[in-house]
Amino acid sequence: MVKRKGPGEGRPKLVWDPAGDDRRLATTTQELRTGRYALAGELLAARGVSEDVRDYRYLILAQVAASSGVDTAWLAEEPGSPEAALLRMRANVIRALQAHRTRHPKAADLIELARAQCLEAAERFPGDPLPWVALLHLAPAAPEKVPGPRELAVDGPWQTMGQVWQRDPWNREAHHRLLAAVGPKSGGSVPAVTGVALWITSRAPAESALCVLQLLAFIETFREQVERNETNKILLTYRNWSTAYAQQETERCYTRWFAPTGGKGVLLPDLHLLAHALWAGSHWEPASVVFDAIGPYALTTPWALHGDPEQVLVAARERSMSGP
């Protein structure tokens, strides 16, 4: 039985940091913001971490580099550094996507540059899935619409996905990018997201973090419904996450993936996706356990779906930890 605290008792103040409890990443991010990249080189070259953690570290640092230009300075200083080259590649993908979203006049050039750098990195590091993951990240701006597996009538970046599968079959970020590439924001559809998520999770190992793809599919369904009926968010939340299927998939994700480790080593975005699904489906006790694993580390997604993300997150945490 989980021992519950009273309202607000012992609750840590929210810390808006995507690094979560990866404090090496948090420290390195702060250093990179000041233009210093020595720690980034050490962190990104570190051995003994999973490919999913490595991909996530590159992504978070690339988000900093994309706005500061520190990746260009680092690569100029250390042109032979694989880590500097891969960080520049990821940062340029982010820049290209930003230009695409804002319809910048140089968007096409930036997209082509990012694509070329991904392919160059793939040739330079043939066994590394990261260049192909970055190419999938670029897919909304540079669509690759080819037919998918026979079981799926969904076009998408399947050739690029195939390159990832050869190197890291259950790569977390790649599958998230695949879902985004077949979704509404990339010219696809919610049924495509739902079908691909089910296809992937039915094949992935039970302990794989890919179970949260089903939770993402529920979010896409909810988002589409909200766009049609903004005034009924509370009712739509209840309807979406109280169905037998949503309850089944949320419980499966908790019991088979999260519970065996208590969330140790789980990336912060996945913890928030699970906490959100448990809260939305009124699974208060397991939700409280996941919120304990999250600690003070807050993210905007997916809480912004329901209003002000800070208010929604705090309310969800308090409700979950207050008991039935």
Quick overview of this protein structure:
This protein has about 325 residues and is an all-alpha fold.
Mean pLDDT: 93
Largest sheet: 2 strands, parallel
What's the order of the H and E elements?
A: EHHHHHHHEEHHHHHHHHEH
Oligomer: single chain
With strands numbered from the N-terminus, the spatial order across the biggest sheet is 1-4
The Cα radius of gyration reads 20 Å
Structural write-up:
It is a single chain. With 324 residues, the protein is an all-alpha fold. It contains 16 helices and four strands. It has a two-stranded parallel ribbon. A two-stranded antiparallel sheet has the order 2-3. The longest helix has 21 residues, at 82-102. Mean pLDDT is 93; it is low at 1-8.
In terms of topology, how is this protein built?
Layout: E1 15-16, H1 23-33, H2 38-45, H3 51-68, H4 70-77, H5 82-102, H6 107-124, H7 130-137, E2 146-147, E3 155-156, H8 158-167, H9 172-181, H10 190-201, H11 212-228, H12 233-241, H13 244-258, H14 268-280, H15 284-294, E4 297-298, H16 309-321
Parallel strand pairs: 1-4
Antiparallel strand pairs: 2-3
Helix pairs in contact: 1-2, 1-3, 3-5, 4-5, 5-6, 5-7, 6-7, 7-8, 7-9, 10-11, 11-12, 11-13, 14-15, 15-16
Which descriptors apply to this entry?
two-stranded parallel sheet, two-stranded antiparallel sheet, 16 helices
